[in-house]
Design goal:
The structure holds two protein chains of two kinds. Chain A is an all-alpha fold. Chain A contains nine helices and no strands. Chain A has one domain. The longest helix of chain A is centred in the middle third of the chain and has 39 residues. In chain B, strands 5-6-7-3-8-9 form a six-stranded mixed sheet, with helices on both faces. In chain B, strands 2-1-4 form a three-stranded antiparallel sheet, with helices on one face. Chain B contains eight helices and nine strands. In chain B, strand 6, helix 6 and strand 7 form a beta-alpha-beta unit. In chain B, helix 3 crosses helix 4. Chain B folds into two domains: 181 residues, P-loop containing nucleotide triphosphate hydrolases (Rossmann fold, 3-Layer(aba) Sandwich), CATH 3.40.50; 73 residues, no CATH class. Classes of the chains: A mainly alpha, B alpha/beta. At the A-B interface, helix 2, helix 4 and helix 5 of A face helix 2 and helix 3 of B.
Chain lengths: 274, 260
Amino acid sequence: MAADAPTPAGPRNLIGGTARGVVSATRTVERLIAFTLITLGTAFSKNHLARGVIRPLIREQIFRAGVRLIPMVCFLGLALGILIVGQTEALLQQVGANQYTGALLVTVIIRELAPLVSGLVVFARVGTASVIELGTARALGEMEALEALSIDPIHYLVVPRVIGFTVAVMGLTLYCILASLVSGYIFAYSRGLPLNPAAYLERIAAALSWVDFPLLALKSGLFGAITALIVTYQGLARPLRLEDIGDTTARTVVYCLVVCLIVDGGFIPLYLIL
Amino acid sequence: MNPPIVLQFDGVSVASPIEGSPSVAGIDWQVLEGQCWVIGGLQGSGKSAVIEAAAGLRALSSGGIQLFGIDPTQRTGTEAQSLRRRVGLVFEGSGRLFGGLSVLENLTLPLRYHEDLSPEDALNQILPLLEAFDLQPVAGLLPRQLGFGFSKRVALARALVLRPEILLVDDPLGGLDAAQSRTLRRLLMQLNQGHPWLSQRPVTLIITAEELRPFLNLGGHFALVENRRWTSIGTRDDLLECRTTGVLELLADHSEHPPS
C-alpha cells in the first residue's frame, strides 16, 4: 500500500532528481561530442569518396535549408531592422548620441541577432523536419539497410546535412543583415530623421572591425553545424520506435536552443578580447 | 577437393537487442562456397539475428565469425567495406527499401556510391538486372506505391547490385501468394545455380524460413533455430528423417507452397 503512494517531493528527491539530470545531461554531451568527432573524421577521411552521390545531397540541403528560407529570413530581417534600427535611431537622436548608431547596429544585429535568427529559422523549418525524417528512417530500419549495402550512414546522411546547414546559415545571416539594415534606414528616413544613406553606411562601416567578419562567419557556421549535428544525432544515434519520434523532436528543440545560446555566449569574451 | 569455406561461425552467441540472454546461442556452422542453406524457425526464434550477424549488422556476445577466412572485426575502413560488399542481405518484409528514393534510385544507389558512377551510367549497368527481375514497369515508382511481391523482388535485386558472393535472404516467402512465391523461389534457384547477372557464378545462398516445405527442392542443407538454440540438421534426407517436434512443425503442409 505504502509503496503505491506517490513519493512526497522533498529536498532529498529534489537533490536526487537534479543529480540524475546532471548525469544524464553529461552523458548526452559526451555522446554528442563523440558523434561530432566521428562525423568530422568521416567528412575528412571520405571526402574523396562517392562525390557523385554526396555532392547532390549537399546541394539539396543547401537549397532546402538556405535558398528556400531566404524570403522568410528577409522578412524577419526587415522586421528586426524596423524594430531595432528605427527605434534606436530615434532614441539616439533625442539624446544627441547619433554617433553611436553604427556601434549599436553592429553589436545588436550583425554580431548577435542575425546569426541567431538565421540559425533558429533553419532549425525550426528544416531541423525539426529532419529529426522526424531521420527518426522514421531509423525506426523503419533504413540505417541497417545502408550498412548492409556497405554505405556509411554518417557519410550519406549526416555529412551532407552538416555541410548544407553550415553554408545555409552563413548565407541566410548575410541576407538577414542586409534586409535589417535596409528596412532600418527606410524606417528612420520615413520618420524624418536627418540621415543620408552615405552617413548611415559610414557609421556602420566605422563601427565594424576586421574581426567582425571572421567571427560572424564562424558564429553563423557554428550555429548551422551545431543544429545539423544535434538534429542528426537525435534522429540517428540510437534505435527509435515510431512512437518515440515526437518526444525526440521536442527534446531536440530544447537541446538546439540551449547549445546555440551557450555558443552565442561563448563569443562575447572573444569580441571583448579582440 | 571440397569448395572453400566462405562463412564460419565458431561458438557464436548473437547479442539480443534487449539486454540479458543472447538471441541465439551455441552456433557452430560452416558454409561452403555455392551451398544453399535454409534456416528454419518460428517467428521470433532468432533466425533473423543469425543472418544479420553473418552480415555484420548484429554484435556477438561470444564466439567469432570468419567471412572468406577473414575475421571481419579485424578489418577496418576500406578493407571492411570491401569484405562487406561480398555479402548481400535481403531483409524480411518489404525489404527495408529507402522510402524517399524511387525503385531505380534504390537500385542504382549502391553502384553510384561505391563506384562513383553518374545516374545514367549506373542505370546502364543495372538494366540487365531490371529485365531479369521484370522491374522496368515499376522503376519510377516509390516503394510505398509497390505491391508486396514487387517490394520483395526490388529488395532482392538491390542486394544483388554489387554482385555479392554470399546472399542472405530473410524470410523471402513470408506474405507472398502461391504465384509470387513460385516466382521468387525460381529466382533464388537460378541465383544458386548461376544467373546471367552474376556471370553464371553460383551464389552461396542462406535463407531463413518459417516453413521448410517450400524449400525442400531448393535447399541443400538445413538448420533449425529453436528455443534460442542452433541445430545443424544436414541435407534434405536428414531433414525428412528428423522427427523432432520443431522440424515436424516447420515441415507441416500448409498447402500454400507446394514443393517446387
